[in-house]
What does this fold into?
Amino acid sequence: MYNKIVFTILFVIALLLLGICQATAQVEVSKGSTHKYSVTPIGDTNLDYHWSVTPGGTSSSFGTGSTSNDVIWDGAVGEYIITVYPTKQASDCEGRSNSLSIRVVEMKIQWTTTTSSQCPRTDNQTGDFDLIVNFTGVSGAWSFSYRIDDAPPQTIHVASGNSITINFSGFTNASNTNTEDHTIKITSVTTADNYTVNYTGIETDAEKRLHIITIEPTPDTSGIIQL
It folds into this structure.
């Protein structure tokens, strides 16, 4: 009998802990993204569903609706709670509410340069060199596209992690006197929650979504002569 009581107490504690874990579970979304949320009706189908997000700040319109609702997470970065509860259409009696915790994060991406594998080992690159792409935002798989000067964009998929190193090679400068500038620019980023940001227009190097590579001319001399 004692063992049965102990088992029952432990079982109840486990259920309580499970309920706490479910209540504190949190979903990360990218700022600016749109996601659909839904509930499953139980029993009576003649119900109205009341959706809300606290604190406010999103541009989504809430009120009486269906079992699903789209939320545009374009408010400030931070913590939110999305809540829904049903009411009976005949009596307007309220049912139990359900809530989900949401963390809105801002997606950022930038280049970090490393030195050239050949001289001179400064920002004036020559030969092969590496650029590191650093990503801040939701974790998981993501992808980004970039272009070199006016060439077609190239897309790279990252299975996991927040950075990836890309090796660039083939930059040469045939001139003996002038430097050559090449712009490597991020054009779009798709986050793990399938939110895509496209970058258009003029970017600045300070925003770190582009990197300007200056290729120095190869130093050279003419043949030796006797003076």
Notes: The chain is about 10% helix and 40% strand. Residues 2-24, 120-124 have pLDDT under 50 and may be disordered.
